[in-house]
Structure formats: structure tokens, C-alpha cells
Amino acid sequence: MIEVNGMAHVILTVSQYDAAKTFYGQLMPALGLENVFDGENMCYFVGARTALGIQPCLPEYAGERFKQGRVGLHHICFRARSREDVDQVEGLLRDMGARIVSPAKDGPWAPGYYYVLCEDPDGIRVEINYVPGHGVLAEDAGFNPADDWH
To answer: What is the mean pLDDT of residues 58-62?
Structure first.
């Protein structure tokens, strides 16, 4: 068996590239990710054993918005180190004028699950959460994968 060492990166394809660069250019540094490449067709952030890239969509898809529930990505989630960090990110999102889908609150997915959920300029949902201890691996987690995900 191979045990992976986390997820290396996620690349998002966006229809509003300049707006997405502004959005992620403010959010990622607040999460500890540094912009290591900022080009015409790719913007890439690295830090905290995580990487996120954004790239513009093909011209024929320009103007389309993300639709959660279709085949493909549902949402992305960054793990914070404390509830206070989640609250701090919520404040930043408000200052940025981001669309907040769910203000910081407790969630049912694991004991102590605390999160804020927003959308980027294309409507891609971005979550920042904090889960203490072993999360869904805890004996008393009560995790049910059929629970409605945000």
C-alpha cells in the first residue's frame, strides 16, 4: 500500500480570470500560500504543503459560471489551525466583498467541525474549516458520507 503525503495541488479553470486572480491573490496569502507564478494563463500559489492554481477557461466557455452538483468539482476546502483562524478568514472575505454562502458556524460532519463557506467570482465554492483532534477518524465522529455537503 502507498500512503500519500497530502494532495499536491488543485487547478481551477475559471471564466473570469482577472477577477479570480484578484480574489485568490487576496485570500491565498491570508492562508499562508505565496504567489509563486503569476502569468497570462496561470496563477499558482504554494504554501502549507498545499498548492492552488487558476487558469482561464477556453474562449468558448467564457462567461459561464460554475454549477455545483454537476460532474466534476463540488467545492474546495482549506483546513485552518483554529476556530479563530476561520473567524479571521470570514472577516477578510467580508472586507473583500466576497459572496459568503455560510458565515462561520459549526457543521455536522465531525465533532468540533467549524467552517466558513464562500464563492469565488465564478461561483466555485471555497470552504475554510477547522476540525479538532482526529475529525472523522475519531471513534465518536458519527461521520455519514451521505450527509448533505454544502
So the answer is: 94
